[in-house]
Amino acid sequence: MTTTCTGRYALRRKLYKELSYDERGKPMHRRALKAKKRAMQNSLCALCADLLPEKDVVLDRFEAKNGYTMVNTQLICRACDTVKQERLRFTDGAPL
Question: Which residue has the higher pLDDT, 18 or 76?
């Protein structure tokens, strides 16, 4: 019985992970896209033009349904992402 439960859990976890990849793409793909965007934007935030930190930057999509592509994304700082999310009412202003 334990083996069956463990197998089901592993299958559910694998399915969850694969479905999230369908939505967001594989982590290595996003990491490479962030590096290309950083070079294209000269390490500046696309919205406020401040220098982007080494970590904690957001790969923002113009149209979510179009996925993470070079033409559909911009690299922005966390502060600009928070403002944008609040403006679009995706968050309630509470810390994430």
Answer: 76
- Helices (H), ranges, the chain: 2-24, 27-40, 78-87
Task: Give the pTM.
Answer: 0.69
pLDDT digits (tens, 9 = 90+) for 21-30: 666 677 888 8
In this structure, what are the phi and psi dihedrals at residue 74, rounded to the nearest 5 degrees? -145, 150
Tell me how far apart the terminal alpha carbons of the chain are, to the nearest angstrom: 39
Q: DSSP 3-state assignment of 74? A: strand
Domains of the chain, CATH where assigned? 26-87 (3.40.1800.10)
